[in-house]
Fold each of these.
Amino acid sequence: MFSFSPSDDQTRLQERARAFARKVVAPRLQEMDRTNEYPWDVVRILADEGFMSLTIPKQYGGGGRPLIDAILVSEEIAKVGGVVARIVVDANTAVQKAIVEYGTEEQKRRFLPPIGQGDKPVIAITEPEAGSAATWMTTSATRDGDAYVLNGKKCWITGAGVSKRYLVFARFDGKPGAEGIGALLVEADTPGLTVPRIPMMMGLRGMPEGDVSFVNCRVPAGNLLAGPGDGFRKLMRCYNLQRIGAASVALGIAQGAFDLAALRALDRKQFGKPIAEFQGLQWMLADMHIQLECARLLVYRAAVSGTNGFPDKLDAAAAKVHAAEMAIQVTNQALQIFGAAGYSCDLPIERMVRDARMFTIGGGTAQVQRNLIAKEVLARAAKARAQ
């Protein structure tokens, strides 16, 4: 049965997230944007509220909730502060799903509870010459007795330097292509792991995007989460959750900007009347609303699609592309409605514009997602023809 309305329990969860965003997140955003410092105080409250462990199984200290519940929470928080919503998304999607599905019992008991307690998990894939071309990565993992030795460099790693644990993608024993890629769970204090650079970013400040270097970094063999062979395929199945999470943050940022713009249209007067009475502006608001609702339906459908907690990859990619591009358009239109006031740093609109810009890049560019979508559409068409 299709349902387009949240349950009573989900509505209460949304209300809690909304109250948290207004009370805890809103007062901290200007400072976070200025200093780019990770908001440990906010994260501790996120953990206390249970928002960092929504989808972690109950036996490991989590809420055992479905992905859609984490999406609803991240959307609500993103209406106020996208960077904090990203923290929620990262805790409830790719890394912890990979550990739950593919980890040993020892790995689950060791790595899952700290995530729920506020230790943001970090996924390290991107390299200087292997961003969109992830299967070209060169970071190497070579077996040496009871350990793997990591060597290489990752870049633009979300959360670099703030987490105690990394999920590091690497090429094992020099095997070429996707089949040579697997992943290790690496402690941040492992000798040879360093974070040499954390640049200031255009938006979503407060969440570092840094370089991570590995020089003869010895990782216990027991920390192997997914080995070569089908490891990369397995891990990317989990990464689809991350893409939906990113789409929900983009959606929330855009909705927050739209809400502010609608109120501004009612309050701001030109030519002796509220600008909301001008048809040109009404059409802007109508188009923004349509785009938001289309994105919301795509994101929600993606969050509940698939089987065994793995979203349909076509739905995930479509949701990410549309929500990301919609967020850029809607936040810019919201700034236009505010006029010069929106362009100033006195109001949050300019920050929302900057924050929205990341989502067509990070987690799989819009162009690469379109390649994935086209490939999947054609494969399904060929399958249907053969039946």
Amino acid sequence: MNTIEHFQCENIDLLMEIFDHKVSLKEVYTQKGPASSDYISLSIKLNLLIKEYFEEKTLNLISMSKDELIEVWKQKGFKHLDTIEASQKFDELILKYQKLKHID
């Protein structure tokens, strides 16, 4: 799957839910203030939605990086500098994803 196809797979429902929660959060803040239980609940839910979004995007990046690594490996061989660089990029993304999951 190429980069354009990955962008077409954007989770519009999740983005709309995040947007709606941000709008609702602003309204509750204005009406009830930041100490209200409604505001706190919406804030927690929004935070969880944003984490879900970042996790999804990170997994997409990992998938794209894996595809790139395989393609470079097929074209240039296992020991080529470009293959090693693609492998290092792939490893970095996996480490970042593991750190992201560890924070939860």
Amino acid sequence: MIKRIERNILIDYVFRFTCNFDLSASIWVLYLISKGLPLWQIGILEGVFHMVSFLSEIPTGAIADILGRKRAMIISRVCSTAASGLMLFSNNLWMLALSFALSAWGYNFLSGSEEALVYDSLKQAGKKDKFLKVSGRLEMILNISQSTSLLLGGFLAEVSFLYCYLVASIISIISLIPCLFLTEPIRSSEKSSKKAGFLVQIVTAFQYMRNEKRVIEILLSYSIIFTFYTISYFYGQQYFSQLGFSKDKIGMIMFFVGIMDCIGAVNSEKIARKYGEYAKEISIMLIAIGTLCVVTGNTLIGVICFGVMGFAVTMLYPIQSEALNRIIPSEQRATIISANSMIFSMYMLVLFPIAGIIGDTYNLKVVFIGLSLVELALGLLYCLMKIKQNKGKQEIE
């Protein structure tokens, strides 16, 4: 049984690669623009994604904790495949909105369940101290997959958006195969959680978060960093397009960002050991400076800074994941991890459309400068709060 549980990690490496090999990721904004949608409608569609995600994260996490993480991952792949196919054939805003909703469910069912399955597999095998390293490897694999697919997607989109989304749908189906070979880890309260029911599972998770203030702090502070980077990343496609870059060259830029992401993921454990509690503050300052430098007017500096942003934010994912999983119980793990994604969706639901409106009204330079200034303010605020906390600890000692 232990060998089968340990095998989950290797299987998840394969799964992480296939489920993130999305050829459409670098060109979906351009694809929607080619259909005649203005930036504000694209912002609304992204808002639909995050609204559905916001409403569904906790319920899907609870389902994963009650019915099993493996089943939730299978449901995720079915939803993602349907979303990709619908995106291919949709020609009106309502059908596109449905596609984004299905895509959100694909993300929801996966966001808490995969991470919970990996952590509990390591825990059952007596190797949970390896989670930060495994999480870093998973982030590296994710970014290798995404950067490769971004590059290929950019080239394929130059030929046809149709081919790009058709291949994306096929790969989404293939990603279902590794899920079938996973082994569900044993949880101490698995039977009782099934008997307790859906609502009790959610209430119990919220009660735990309310009593454990550190969990709320981790969820709120890291999610805002990821939100600012995500906005910059998505609108960066259109920004480079406005500078005259073709879709294949934009794909190459995103490929470079993916390489920087991999470097950040691989070094996340070393950075966490070296800088510890200040890793978050260092990251957000790098993201803020990088966001500002993207719009300096120098294309080379802009591309390099885009890569620096990717490095900074990607090294934070394993650090946040390890910090969160260390203090939450297995029986609520997927539900609470899903709360993390829910908070991210809440931020995106509000900020992504606002950024789109500002981009349409003024230009995307204004968006990047605004994001940078807010990021700098948050970085300074987090630093001051950290210094105050450390002084308080020293006084107590």
